[in-house]
């Protein structure tokens, strides 16, 4: 029976982790998988999370099951961060905890399928796991063009999809810090998208995995909030992996916005049933730590300060790369300063990416995506020189 299985290639992005680890060159640079790094190249546990974990260790009296919804305190503590002061919109937004943002995307797509969605429009390039999740649920993924070569988002493409959508369509949109391009919609573009969605049968699915790493915690949620203010229904996938540094603890949440509070029990009971069938219950530890941070004024401030520091460092990397444009002919860098989050796309071909790895020990995704957090004061000049070498 199992002899029918064909080899399937490992996830290229995750395979880079092992390739990088095996490289013995001391000056190697990891621009692969999306984790934040300090200027020392470390991905430390947030101080606020460490303190919350200690409190959790002292105060937690049981690890008995919580249920498929996970930690409701965590789910609710996060809501004002994502949705603003009117966080439930009068009982029209509710959610469940999920194993990471990936679990939340999975739940959103699976719930959309139960609600009658048959195809999901995805702007490309996108996170390489979006389309596999859509297809694994059994839906059709239809792509449209997300970003222009000049570093702007292709507004006409997304508006065209929304305006031509039919019943049974969904559109997956990145809330901020677009992965992999770093190219977000402007405020005016979000207004146009929200207006178009209000007049369309398309179901918006918004993936928010990097809130706080772009231009600010509130600013990064502005587009999502504009959409939710206008549409009757939406699904939101949220990740705490990056903005709480909880990657391997798998901390995320799924939310649904419905038109009437009376529709919420059906939405949440289906979400809970899907969670039960997929993973039964989400892992608790990281979500509990986030809940403790968000409910404690001092820890919350400490978290906000730590997040500010991360964002400022990412902006420094972007500004430094943009400032190096004159040294690197043929690879546009100047617009990186206007973009947001961990990622940027460099228009390099396979040979140039291989040369960067082989000659300069610079590891990046085969798509041309770099994780800019891998650049530090200690290695950014070497990276710029390597780029100039392969581009020249
Ligand atoms: C990334 O895009 O590098 C991250 O979101 C990690 C992942 O799971 O792919």
UniProtKB/TrEMBL annotation:
Task: Determine if Transferase is one of this entry's keywords.
Answer: yes
Gene3D superfamilies in UniProt: Aspartate Aminotransferase, domain 1 (3.90.1150.10), Type I PLP-dependent aspartate aminotransferase-like (Major domain) (3.40.640.10)
| Documented EC number(s) | 2.6.1.1
Keywords from the named record? Aminotransferase, Pyridoxal phosphate, Transferase
Q: Which GO terms fall under molecular function for this chain's record?
A: L-aspartate:2-oxoglutarate aminotransferase activity
Needed cofactors, names only, are: pyridoxal 5'-phosphate
Residue ranges annotated for the Aminotransferase class I/classII large domain, each copy included: 27-387
Where is the signal peptide, in residue numbers?
none
The answer to whether keyword Transferase applies is yes
InterPro entries named in the record: Aminotransferase_I/II_large (IPR004839), Asp_trans (IPR000796), PyrdxlP-dep_Trfase (IPR015424), PyrdxlP-dep_Trfase_major (IPR015421), PyrdxlP-dep_Trfase_small (IPR015422)
Q: NCBIfam families per the record?
A: PRK09257.1
Query: Which family is this protein grouped under?
Result: Belongs to the class-I pyridoxal-phosphate-dependent aminotransferase family.
Quaternary structure and interacting proteins, as annotated: Homodimer.
| Name of the protein this chain belongs to | Aromatic amino acid transaminase
Species the sequence originates in: Alteriqipengyuania abyssalis
């Amino acid at each position: 029976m199992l002899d029918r299985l064909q080899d399937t290639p490992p996830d290229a992005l995750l395979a880079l982790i092992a390739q990088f680890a095996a490289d013995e060159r001391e000056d190697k640079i990891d621009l692969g998988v999306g984790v934040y790094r300090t200027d020392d190249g470390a991905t430390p546990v947030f101080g606020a999370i460490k303190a919350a974990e200690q409190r959790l260790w002292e105060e937690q009296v049981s690890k008995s099951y919580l249920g498929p919804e996970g930690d409701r305190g965590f789910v609710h503590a996060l809501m004002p961060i994502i949705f603003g002061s009117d966080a439930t919109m009068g009982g029209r937004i509710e959610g469940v905890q999920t194993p990471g943002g990936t679990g939340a995307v999975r739940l959103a797509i699976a719930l959309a399928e139960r609600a009658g969605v048959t195809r999901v429009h995805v702007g490309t390039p996108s996170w390489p796991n979006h389309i596999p999740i859509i297809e694994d649920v059994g839906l059709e993924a239809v792509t449209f063009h997300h970003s222009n070569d000049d570093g702007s988002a292709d507004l006409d493409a997304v508006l065209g999809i929304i305006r031509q959508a039919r019943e049974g369509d969904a559109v997956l949109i990145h809330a901020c810090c677009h992965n992999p391009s770093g190219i977000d919609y402007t405020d005016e573009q979000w207004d146009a998208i929200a207006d178009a969605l209000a007049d369309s049968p398309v179901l918006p699915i918004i993936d928010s995995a990097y809130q706080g790493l772009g231009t600010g915690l509130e600013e990064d949620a502005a587009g999502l909030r504009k959409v939710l203010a206008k549409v009757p229904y939406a699904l939101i996938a949220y990740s705490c992996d990056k903005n709480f540094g909880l990657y391997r603890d798998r901390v995320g949440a799924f939310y649904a916005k419905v038109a009437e509070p009376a529709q919420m029990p059906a939405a949440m009971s289906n979400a809970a049933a899907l969670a039960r069938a997929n993973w039964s219950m989400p892992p608790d530890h990281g979500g509990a730590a986030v809940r403790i941070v968000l409910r404690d004024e001092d820890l919350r401030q400490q978290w906000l300060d730590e997040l500010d520091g991360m964002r400022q460092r990412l902006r420094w990397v972007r500004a430094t790369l943009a400032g190096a444009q004159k040294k690197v002919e043929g690879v546009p860098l100047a617009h990186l300063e206007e973009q947001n989050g961990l990622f940027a796309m460099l228009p390099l071909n396979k040979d140039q990416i291989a040369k960067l790895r082989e000659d300069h020990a610079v590891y990046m995704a085969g798509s041309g995506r770099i994780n800019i957090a891998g650049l530090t004061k200690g290695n950014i000049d070497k990276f710029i020189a390597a780029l100039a070498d392969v581009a020249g």
